[in-house]
Write a structure and sequence with these properties.
With 456 residues, the protein is mainly beta. The protein has two helices and 30 strands. The strands form seven sheets. A nine-stranded antiparallel beta sheet has the order 3-18-22-15-12-17-10-9-30.
Length: 456
């Protein structure tokens, strides 16, 4: 609906898809859940509106270059100094941090797992996290950890924050609600959620009795959209499709809440007498967001050959070395395959980067058998991998026509660090111990007297 005056016509904001959110990536947002709660023209007035406390949350050093500087001003009922009194160590033995060297006990090999069932007693977001692999070192703030999660219980009076890194969350089963200090994010399969380091939140089941998915915990610089280079100003993940929540708060005074923090790989908790999700207004560029993977606009070869998978990068966490990521988040979405006289699936290769893959829905073209939604695979640095034998022969011998690759959303966490498998992941019953056998049927077709191979 448009609002009309005598002088001009003004559009109202979009309310269908964006309701409850602000579009854009890395914007300097401002939002208030109560009219006039946000100070105008300054960050820290002598007396904040409504008697709120002004508090800054910084995601980068104060002196970071302007283009990289991230901070948000929060206007809340109580300052967070009241959230950390009487902290005590707690144990979450399956939620691990890097490094985790030499604990799997498995020989070097490409690895793949079937989906792990969701236990009936998986519990909350915090208790349901299981670490699969790590790289780097949490104490030096480089590297990552990759986890799975299973949730059967909402965090009604619990909150969590991670001081070690930001969390990139990939739902695969079930819808979740992430109630953060800066607002509410609802997400389900086909979407991702990114929660910055240091931001408090709780996770609630949202219309489902259980949920499952994947997490990448990034210790290094924050995820950002990749440079497009010659691709130009459009396609891939467009900034307008990232959504940051409007301010939302809950007022629960006199209700005991448990606050758990992950700090340098350890866990500490305390109890407070109110909800810490009490931010009434905020402004800044350090904030959580979500993104619908179905909005990704893929680019690819339109004549011949197969481009590197980096063309499917949604988000990248850069390292100190140009062109080398601490970790990349890459997806393989529905798309058209049109390359002429070309082997269309990913080719066989060895890579300096390490690749963890998961499948959200459908089928992955290079692994049509044995890799199903909820499963995962790990192809570590400088270990060979590629299409299984069935995929190779099918792609090599089929008649090439324009083909829609549909019913698929696969993703990859790709990192410059070797991925150190945890003891938990090595001991899963769902580990496919014969996974490398998928390449055994590949034959030697070489015949020096026959240049053109036709499949015999």
């Amino acid at each position: 609906m448009n609002r009309e005056t005598n002088d001009f016509v003004r559009a109202t904001s979009r309310a269908k898809y964006n309701e409850g959110y602000m579009p854009g990536f890395g914007n300097d947002f401002e939002t208030e859940a109560e009219e006039g709660a946000l100070p105008i023209g300054q960050n820290s007035p002598q007396r904040c509106p409504y008697g709120l406390y002004a508090e800054q949350l910084s995601g980068t050093p104060f002196t970071a270059p302007r283009a990289n500087n991230e901070r948000t001003w929060l206007y809340r009922m109580r300052p967070t100094v009241q959230h950390i009194s009487d902290m005590a160590r707690v144990e979450l033995p399956h939620f691990r941090s890097a490094p985790t060297p030499d604990e799997s006990g498995l020989p070097l090999a490409p690895m793949r797992w079937d989906p792990a069932p969701i236990p009936e007693d998986a519990g909350t977001w915090i208790t349901g996290i299981r670490t699969i692999s790590t790289g780097g070192d949490v104490l030096t703030q480089v590297g990552y950890a990759i986890h799975t999660y299973a949730v059967t219980e909402s965090m009604e009076t619990e909150v969590f924050y991670n001081a070690d890194g930001e969390m990139l969350i990939v739902p695969e089963v079930g819808n979740l609600r992430f109630f953060t200090e800066m607002g509410v994010i609802d997400a389900g399969p086909g979407e991702i959620v990114v929660i910055p380091r240091g931001l408090k939140y709780k996770v609630l089941l949202n219309g489902d009795d259980k949920a499952r998915g994947y997490i990448c915990e990034n210790y290094d610089g924050a995820f950002t959209v990749p440079e497009r280079g010659p691709i130009g100003a459009n396609c891939m993940a467009n900034p307008r499709d990232f959504l940051t929540p409007l301010a939302a708060y809950e007022r629960k005074d006199g209700v005991t809440h448990r606050v758990t923090v992950k700090w340098c790989g350890q866990f500490h908790a305390c109890e407070i007498d109110h909800s810490p999700l009490d931010v009434v207004a905020w402004h800044g560029n350090y904030a959580p967001y979500k993104y619908n993977l179905r909005h990704y606009s893929p680019v690819g070869p339109i004549r011949n050959d197969h481009a590197d998978p980096s063309i499917f990068t949604v988000l990248t966490a850069p390292s100190g070395e140009p062109g080398t990521a601490n970790i990349d988040f890459v997806i393989f979405p529905p798309r058209w395959l049109v390359a002429e006289d070309s082997f269309r699936p990913p080719w066989y290769h060895m890579n300096i980067m390490s690749e963890f893959m998961g499948l959200i829905e459908g089928v992955y073209d290079a692994k049509p058998q044995g890799f199903v939604p909820g499963g995962m695979s790990l192809h570590n640095m400088m270990l060979p991998h590629g299409p299984d034998a069935d995929a190779f022969y099918a792609a090599s011998l089929k008649k090439l026509e324009p083909e829609k690759l549909d019913n698929t959303i696969a993703f990859m966490f790709e990192t410059r660090f070797p991925q150190q498998l945890t003891k938990y992941a090595a001991g899963l019953d769902t580990l496919q111990v014969k996974y490398p056998d998928v390449w055994k049927p590949l034959r030697n077709h070489f015949d020096p007297n026959r240049k053109v191979w036709t499949g015999e």
